[in-house]
Specification:
Layout (H helix, E strand, L loop, with lengths): L11 H12 L5 H146 L14 H11 L3 H8 L3 H6 L9 E4 L5 H8 L4 E5 L2 H9 L4 E3 L2 H6 L6 E7 L7 H14 E12 L4 H5 L14 H10 L3 E10 L9 H12 L1 E9 L2
Parallel strand pairs: 1-2, 1-4, 2-3, 4-5
Antiparallel strand pairs: 5-7, 6-7
Length: about 400
C-alpha cells in the first residue's frame, strides 16, 4: 500500500522563538510572561501529541505486521488441514478396502467351516452306520449262539428220548405184552412244543389275542423294577415278548425245557421252574402282576388253590392276578376242544373259578370272556341262531382277574 510522506515538526524552541518574534513586540512585561506560560503549555501539549502520533504509527505498523503474520499462519494452517484431509481420505479408503478383504475372508472361513461340517456329518453318519451294522452283527451272532445252545439242548433231549424209546423197545422185545411205565421227565417236551404250534396257533396269533391285557398292566402300575410281572407257564414267550416290546420288566417260568430253550433263543427271560415252586420261593409283596395263560387247567385242584394263596402273598397291594383258561361254557370247547390237549385235567367253569378266587382273598374279581369263534349258524330263525351261536361259537376262552387290596 502507498506510504504517505511524513513532515517532521519543528522543535518547540524554534517554534517559540518565531512566536515570540511575532507577538513579543510592543507587549508589556506581565503580558509577555503570561503569553510565555501559555506558549510553554501549548508546546508541552504539542510534544505529547507528537509522542502519541509516533506511538500510533508504531502500533499501526505492529498491527499490520501481526495481521500479515496471522494471514500467513492461516494460509499455512489451511494448507496443513487440506493435506491432513487428503491423508484422512486415503486412510479411510484403505480401511474400507481392508474391511472388504476381511468380509471376503470371513465368507471364505464360513464356507470352509460348512465344508468341514459337511465332511464331519458324512463321516459321523458313516460311523453311525458302521456302528449299527456292528451292533446288528453282534446281536445276530449272540442270537445264533443262543439258538445253537438251544439246539444243543434239544439234541440232548432227543438223544435221551431215543435212548428211552430204545430201552422200551428192548424191553418190549424181551417181555411181550403191555409196556409197564412209559416216557417220563422231559422226554415229551419237544412233542408238546410241536403240538402247541399246531393246535394253539402261531406266536403272532397268540400275541394279538394277549395284547388286550396290556392296558391292565398299565392300570395296576406293573412292569417296573419295583413291581415286575411274573408269567407262570410262559410257554413260547408270547406274553413276555409283548411286555418287553413296551419296555416293561417281566420274566417267566415253565417246566418244559423245549419251551425254555425257545424263549432263550428269542432272548426272553424264562427259567426252568414250576409255577407253584416259583411263587413259594418269592418274598412277600414282591410282584406287581402274576399272569398265567392256559395253566390252571393242567393243575390238580389242591395245587390250584395253593397257587392262589401264594399269588396273594407275593403280590403288592394293588397287584393283579390274571389267569386265562378254556371256557367250557362254549359247548364245542367243553366237549371237544378242551380234550385236544392230552395234558389238560378237567374244564374249569368260570363261575367256580371266580368263587374260589374270592374265597382265597382276592377282591374285585371279574370274568372276561374272550376269543369268540367267527363261525355262525345260518337259518331264518335268527333268535334261535343267536342262541346256538352263543352256545357253540361263543367265546372260547375266559380270563379271571383278581386284585389284592
Amino acid at each position: 500500500m502507498p506510504v504517505t510522506p511524513q513532515v517532521q515538526p519543528a522543535p518547540a524552541s524554534a517554534r517559540a522563538g518565531s512566536v515570540w518574534d511575532a507577538v513579543g513586540f510592543g507587549q508589556t512585561g506581565a503580558e509577555l510572561d503570561r503569553l510565555r506560560l501559555r506558549s510553554d503549555a501549548v508546546e508541552k501539549r504539542l510534544d505529547q501529541i507528537e509522542g502519541w502520533a509516533r506511538n500510533s504509527a508504531e502500533r499501526t505498523s505492529f498491527v499490520e505486521s501481526m495481521v500479515a503474520d496471522v494471514d500467513g499462519f492461516r494460509m499455512a494452517r489451511a494448507r496443513q488441514i487440506a493435506g491432513q484431509q487428503r491423508m484422512t481420505e486415503k486412510f479411510i479408503a484403505s480401511l474400507a478396502g481392508l474391511a472388504e478383504r476381511i468380509d471376503a475372508f470371513g465368507l471364505e472361513i464360513e464356507a470352509m467351516q460348512a465344508r468341514i461340517a459337511a465332511i464331519e456329518t458324512g463321516q459321523q453318519a458313516e460311523l453311525d452306520r458302521m456302528d449299527d451294522r456292528l451292533t446288528a452283527f453282534a446281536e445276530r451272532q449272540d442270537m445264533l449262539q443262543r439258538v445253537m445252545s438251544g439246539r444243543s439242548q434239544q439234541i440232548r433231549r432227543i438223544d435221551r428220548t431215543i435212548g428211552l424209546l430204545g430201552g422200551e423197545a428192548d424191553h418190549s422185545a424181551a417181555a411181550p405184552g403191555p409196556v409197564a411205565g412209559g416216557l417220563h421227565g422231559h422226554a415229551l417236551d419237544l412233542l408238546y412244543l410241536a403240538f402247541e404250534d399246531r393246535a394253539r396257533g402261531s406266536r403272532d396269533e397268540i400275541k394279538a389275542r394277549q395284547a388286550v391285557f396290556l392296558p391292565l398292566v398299565e392300570q395296576c402300575g406293573a412292569g417296573t423294577a419295583d413291581r415286575p410281572v411274573l408269567d407262570l407257564g410262559a410257554g413260547r414267550g408270547e406274553w413276555l415278548e409283548l411286555l418287553r416290546e413296551r419296555g416293561l420288566v417281566a420274566r417267566g417260568v415253565d417246566t418244559n425245557e423245549a419251551m425254555v430253550a425257545l424263549c432263550a433263543s428269542l432272548d426272553i427271560d424264562c427259567a426252568d421252574a414250576d409255577a407253584l415252586g416259583a411263587l413259594v420261593a418269592l418274598p412277600d409283596e414282591s410282584l406287581g402282576m402274576i399272569s398265567g395263560f392256559h395253566v390252571i387247567e393242567h393243575l390238580p385242584h389242591e395245587v390250584f388253590v395253593s397257587l392262589l394263596d401264594e399269588a396273594l402273598r407275593v403280590l403288592k397291594p394293588g397287584g393283579v392276578l390274571l389267569l386265562e383258561t378254556p371256557d367250557p361254557q362254549n359247548v364245542l370247547v367243553g366237549s371237544h376242544g378242551f380234550y385236544m390237549d392230552p395234558t389238560h385235567r378237567n374244564p374249569l367253569p368260570s363261575a367256580m373259578v371266580r368263587i374260589i378266587a374270592e374265597a382265597r382273598g382276592f377282591a374285585d374279581v371279574e370274568i372276561r370272556r374272550l376269543n369268540p369263534s367267527p363261525t355262525r349258524f345260518a337259518g331264518q330263525d335268527r333268535e334261535l341262531a343267536a342262541q346256538l351261536d352263543e352256545l357253540f361259537y361263543g367265546p372260547q376262552d375266559y380270563a379271571v382277574i383278581g386284585r389284592k387290596i
